[in-house]
Each structure stands twice: as structure tokens, then as C-alpha cells.
Amino acid sequence: MIPHKIIRGIVLRIFYPFLMFLGAFFKSKKEGFQRIIIDMNNRLVRAEGLRTKKILLLLPHCLQINECDIRLTHNIYNCERCGRCEIRDLIEIADEHKLNLFVATGGTIARKIVKEIRPEAIVAVACERDLSSGLVDTYPIPIIGISNERPYGPCFNTIVDLKKVKEAIHFFGGA
Ligand code: SF4
Fold it and tell me: Ligand 1 — pocket residues by CB below 6 A?
């Protein structure tokens, strides 16, 4: 039987570019295609069944509420934990599970963080576009990708289902 990790590589390195090629012609379907890739990736990562405590929790900048001008990119612990956005809750979750926690403003910074931290598994929150391309960039590291919710449109005061974040951490075996 072909190992799940190899199938994940085929999905990310062959099927993903193919779907993005199709997405160039069917623009309205592109986000749906990215969701398919994230879904397939998550299923395959779960099937691989890796357990580790070396987990990185990677968040998008847009989870920080717009009215807060504290700079979180280099140190999320600059957050004063006022509770106006979910950054406070996510810090609590990371502390509780002793995870590495970072905010990334884009793919380049995300890649740099991954290179420095060298996690064995990643729980990543982002929009479908950033998540799907991030999965490809960081393969073969197993990532569970969780799409953010965008009630005010893209990149602005986004939110994430904290239950899904906790579940993904528990899946990997976060203490
Ligand atoms: S919890 Fe408060 S201090 Fe922290 S990032 Fe959100 S708004 Fe800023």
C-alpha cells in the first residue's frame, strides 16, 4: 500500500497545481478547490497518525482586531490579553499545551518561522489561499489546516473556531 505521506505529496505537488490551473479559468471555484486540497491534506495527515509534542501553532495576522495596534509579528506575547480578539484565547491555549506560537503576516514569514522552529507538526490557521499554498511549501511536515472565518471580508477582523484548534492540538498529542 502507498504510504499516506506519499499520497499527501502527490495531492500537494501534483493535484494542487492542476486544480490551481483550473482555478485560473474558473475563478469562482478557486477557493472551493483550495478547500478540497486542505480537506484531503487534513485527512491524510490524520491517517498518518503522527504523535508529537513539538507542535507549532501558526496564526494569521488578521485574527488581531483592527483597533489594536500592538505589534505581534515578532512576539505574539506583546498582546496585553484584553480579550477584544481571540489572540488572548489562542495564547492561553498555546501556554496550556506548551506550544510554539507565532503570528505570520504572509507566506515568507511563515516559512522563516517554520525553518527556525523546526516543528514536527503544525496547526495552521489562515484563509484557504494561504493555507493551501503553505501546505505545499512545508511538505512533508504534517499540518492540520484550519480555515479562518471572515465575517467582515478577507484579511479583516477574522475569527477561528477555537474548538477546532484545540482538537487539532489534541490530535497531534499536545500535552
Ligand atoms: S487580545 Fe487585546 S491586546 Fe491582544 S491582540 Fe487582541 S485586542 Fe490586542
Answer: 64-65, 68, 70, 79-85, 87-88
What SS3 state is found at 125? strand
Instruction: Say how many Å lie between the first and final Cα of the chain, rounded.
Output: 32
**71 domain residue, yes or no:** yes
Task: Answer yes or no: is 43 within a domain.
Answer: no
Q: Whose CA is nearest to atom 4 of ligand 1?
A: 79
- The number of distinct structural domains making up the chain is 1
Tell me the per-residue pLDDT of 104-160, one tens digit each, with 9 for 90 and over: 988 889 999 999 999 999 999 999 999 999 999 999 999 999 999 999 999 999 999
Position 129 in a domain: yes
- Going by alpha carbons, the residue nearest to atom 8 of ligand 1 is 68
Task: Collapse the DSSP code of 20 into the 3-class scheme (helix H, G, I; strand E, B; otherwise coil) and give the result.
Answer: helix
- Cross-strand pairs, 103: 59
Average pLDDT, the chain: 96
Q: Whose CA is nearest to atom 2 of ligand 1?
A: 82
CATH value at residue 62:
3.40.50
DSSP state of 152: T
CA of 82 to the centre of ligand 1 (A): 5
The fraction of the chain above a pLDDT of 70, given in percent, is 99
